[in-house]
Amino acid sequence: MQDAFNDIPCYERNIFLDGQKPKEHVIKKLREAANIAEKNGFAVAIGYVGTEGGKVTAEAIQEMLPEFDERNIQLVFISELDE
């Protein structure tokens, strides 16, 4: 039974995007995630969705998209990392 779990990929969070903080804080964390991704090949960032701060996080991500493009960084679902 234990062997069935060995095939399940497991990732550790690198960055938490706290949408309760100002957008500038979230942008700083997104840049940290980008730096980690450039160094390690990927970074795992999680954050709030919905009314708990999702709007701030979404705005920060939207603002960072041109910089991500310049740095050749793609945003993907975590399930896509193992493909």
Q: What does this 3D model show about the protein?
A:
The protein is mainly alpha-helical. It has one domain (2-80). The protein has helices at 2-6, 23-40, 54-70; strands at 15-17, 45-47. A two-stranded parallel ribbon has the order 1-2. The mean pLDDT is 88. It comes from Acetivibrio straminisolvens JCM 21531. This is Periplasmic protein. It holds the Pfam family Polysacc_deac_2.
Strand tally: 2
List the uncertain runs: none
User: What letter string, H or E per element, gives the SSE order?
Assistant: HEHEH
State the shape. globular
Strand order of the largest sheet: 1-2
Q: What is the helical fraction, as a range of percent?
A: 40-55%
Number of domains: 1
Number of helices: 3
Rg on CA atoms, Å: 14 Å
Terminal CA distance: 24 Å
Strand content: 5-15%
Mean pLDDT level: 88
Task: Specify the biggest β-sheet.
Answer: 2 strands, parallel
| Structural class designation | mainly alpha
Write the layout of secondary structure elements.
Elements: H1 2-6, E1 15-17, H2 23-40, E2 45-47, H3 54-70
Parallel strand pairs: 1-2
Helix pairs in contact: 2-3
Protein name: Periplasmic protein
InterPro entries: Divergent_DAC, Glyco_hydro/deAcase_b/a-brl
Pfam families: Polysacc_deac_2
Task: Write out key terms for the chains shown.
two-stranded parallel ribbon; mainly alpha; 3 helices; single chain; globular
Give a quick summary of the entry.
The chain is mainly alpha-helical and 83 residues long. Helices cover 48% and strands 7% of the residues.
